[in-house]
From TrEMBL:
<dbReference type="InterPro" id="IPR001965">
    <property type="entry name" value="Znf_PHD"/>
</dbReference>
<feature type="region of interest" description="Disordered">
    <location>
        <begin position="222"/>
        <end position="251"/>
    </location>
</feature>
<dbReference type="InterPro" id="IPR047506">
    <property type="entry name" value="UBR7-like_UBR-box"/>
</dbReference>
<dbReference type="Pfam" id="PF02207">
    <property type="entry name" value="zf-UBR"/>
</dbReference>
<dbReference type="InterPro" id="IPR011011">
    <property type="entry name" value="Znf_FYVE_PHD"/>
</dbReference>
<keyword id="KW-0862">Zinc</keyword>
<feature type="zinc finger region" description="UBR-type">
    <location>
        <begin position="38"/>
        <end position="114"/>
    </location>
</feature>
<dbReference type="GO" id="GO:0008270">
    <property type="term" value="F:zinc ion binding"/>
</dbReference>
<keyword id="KW-0479">Metal-binding</keyword>
<feature type="domain" description="UBR-type">
    <location>
        <begin position="38"/>
        <end position="114"/>
    </location>
</feature>
<protein>
    <recommendedName>
        <fullName>UBR-type domain-containing protein</fullName>
    </recommendedName>
</protein>
<dbReference type="InterPro" id="IPR013083">
    <property type="entry name" value="Znf_RING/FYVE/PHD"/>
</dbReference>
<dbReference type="GO" id="GO:0005737">
    <property type="term" value="C:cytoplasm"/>
</dbReference>
<dbReference type="GO" id="GO:0061630">
    <property type="term" value="F:ubiquitin protein ligase activity"/>
</dbReference>
<dbReference type="InterPro" id="IPR040204">
    <property type="entry name" value="UBR7"/>
</dbReference>
<feature type="compositionally biased region" description="Low complexity">
    <location>
        <begin position="222"/>
        <end position="236"/>
    </location>
</feature>
<keyword id="KW-0863">Zinc-finger</keyword>
C-alpha cells in the first residue's frame, strides 16, 4: 500500500492477479461449466439445468410485459446476442432455449435456425424481466446501498435478499445447503412435515447398503403403504446435493438409512405433523432430499405439484456445479499455469507487466465509475471500446517516445 497526496493507492503483484483470476474462473465454471458454450441446447429439449440469459435488446418489452419474457442458452448468448443487453439468470431447470423461437420471432438463431415448436413447458419468473426477491427490485439495485447476500429458492428459483426472507429468527445460512422461500412453503405444504425433523434425524442416520423403491406406483405390492423405517428415503446471488434419480423403469436405487424418518406427506396435513414449522422461509441441510417419502401417495403429490424434480439428482445446483469443476480440473489450475509462465520471464519483463497491469486497473476503475454515477448498464461494447482506446493510447505513446540509443 502506498500513500499518494494523502490518499491510499493500492498496487498488486502478478501472484495476486493470478489468484484473483483463479477465483473468477472457479465462479465462472460453477455457473457456466455445466453448460454447452458452442451448441444451442434447443434440440436437447427441456434441459435438466443450464445457464440462461434474457436479452433485453431483442425483447425490450419483457421489462414490463410478462408474456414477452424469454430465455436463451449460453451458446446463443455468445453467438446470437453478442454486444446485446443481457440479463444473467444464473441457472434454471427444465428449460428449452427460446432464441429464434415463438417467443423471439424477430430473432434468427445462428446455431439452430429451425425452432418451430413453442416451448410450452418453459416457466418464466420475474427474473426474466430483471427483477428479483419479494421487493421486486433489479440486481444490482442502484437505489439500495445495503450490503446483503442473495440466495435462490430451489422451488420457484427466484433470488431473495436474506433480510427479506421473513424468518422468525436469524439463521446461519452457511450451515445449510438449500433454501425454500416462504411463498413456496405455502405453495408446497408437504414440506412442513419435515421441518425440524430432518436435521435431528440427519445426525443419527447411518447409511449402508441399498434398497429399491417404486416411485411410479406401478408396483402396488411395493407401494400400497408408506415404506417402513428401514426402507424409507433417498436423497446455489445456493442449492446442493441429491443422492439419486428415477431410472427409466421408475425404480430408484438409493442409499438406505437405518434411521430414516417415519414420515408420510399424505394429505390432509395434520397439526402434529407441522408442529416444527413456523411461517416463513426454511433452510435445509445437505442431503435432506434423501428423507423425502417416496410412497405412491407422496409421489402422486409431487407430480400434482409439478415437483418430481425433487427426486432427480441432476436438478441440484451442486450436481451442476460439480460437472463444471470437473471440466475445469481437467484443464489444470490457471494459477499454476500462470506462475509457471511467469517464472520463465526475466525480471525486467515482469516489472513491465506489473506496471502495465496496475495502470490498466486504475484506468478501468475510472471508466466504470462513470457508469455508476450515471446509473447506466455496462455492456460488452463498453468494455471493448475501453480496451480499444487503451491500446490506441499505448501505440501512440510508443510512437511518440524519444529514441533510445545504446552506449
Amino acid at each position: 500500500m502506498e500513500q499518494t497526496d494523502g490518499a491510499e493507492t493500492s498496487y498488486v503483484t502478478m501472484e495476486d492477479v493470478l489468484k484473483e483470476q483463479e477465483e473468477l474462473e472457479e465462479t465462472s465454471q460453477a455457473v457456466l461449466g455445466g453448460s454447452d458454450e458452442k451448441n444451442c441446447t434447443y434440440s436437447r429439449g427441456y434441459v435438466d439445468r443450464q445457464a440462461l440469459y434474457a436479452c433485453l435488446t431483442c425483447v425490450p418489452e419483457a421489462r414490463a410485459d410478462e408474456s414477452k419474457r424469454s430465455g436463451v442458452c449460453l451458446a446463443c448468448s455468445l453467438q446470437c446476442h453478442d454486444n446485446h443487453e443481457l440479463l444473467e439468470l444464473y441457472t434454471k431447470r427444465n428449460f428449452r432455449c427460446d432464441c429464434g423461437g415463438k417467443r423471439m420471432p424477430d430473432v434468427k438463431c445462428k446455431l439452430e435456425p429451425r425452432k418451430e415448436e413453442e416451448n410450452n413447458l418453459n416457466k418464466y419468473n420475474q427474473n426474466f424481466s430483471g427483477l428479483y426477491c419479494s421487493c421486486h427490485r433489479p440486481y444490482p439495485d442502484p437505489d439500495d446501498d445495503v450490503a446483503d447476500e442473495m440466495i435462490q429458492c430451489i422451488m420457484c428459483e427466484d433470488w431473495y435478499h436474506m433480510r427479506h426472507l421473513d424468518l422468525d429468527e436469524p439463521k446461519n445460512e452457511k450451515t445449510y445447503a438449500e433454501m425454500i422461500c416462504g411463498t413456496c412453503m405455502e405453495t408446497y405444504p408437504f414440506f412442513r412435515n419435515y421441518v425440524g425433523k430432518i436435521e435431528e434425524q440427519n445426525n443419527k442416520a447411518a447409511l449402508d447398503d441399498t434398497v429399491q423403491v417404486d416411485v411410479t406406483g406401478l408396483d402396488e405390492s411395493a407401494s400400497a403403504a408408506a415404506p417402513a423405517a428401514d426402507d424409507a428415503g433417498p436423497s446455489e446471488p445456493k442449492q446442493r446435493r441429491l443422492e439419486s434419480s428415477p431410472s427409466a423403469t421408475g425404480v430408484v436405487e438409493k442409499e438406505k438409512s437405518t434411521a430414516a424418518l417415519d414420515i408420510c406427506t399424505k394429505p390432509p396435513l395434520g397439526e402434529d405433523a407441522e408442529k416444527g414449522y413456523k411461517k416463513g422461509a426454511t433452510f435445509w441441510v445437505d442431503g435432506w432430499r434423501k428423507y423425502l417419502c417416496q410412497c405412491k401417495a407422496c409421489c402422486l403429490l409431487y407430480k400434482e405439484h409439478e415437483a418430481m424434480y425433487l427426486l432427480n439428482e441432476k436438478d441440484t445446483v451442486q450436481y451442476y456445479e460439480e460437472i463444471g469443476k470437473q471440466r475445469q480440473g481437467a484443464l489444470g489450475s490457471s494459477y499454476e499455469r500462470g506462475m509457471e509462465m511467469l517464472g520463465q520471464l526475466d525480471r525486467l519483463t515482469q516489472v513491465d507487466m506489473f506496471t502495465e497491469y496496475n495502470r490498466m486497473k486504475d484506468r478501468l476503475r475510472e471508466h466504470l465509475a462513470q457508469f455508476v454515477t450515471n446509473q447506466q448498464v455496462v455492456t460488452q461494447a463498453d468494455i471493448t471500446e475501453f480496451f480499444a482506446k487503451l491500446q490506441k493510447e499505448n501505440r501512440e505513446a510508443k510512437t511518440n517516445a524519444p529514441p533510445h540509443f545504446c552506449r
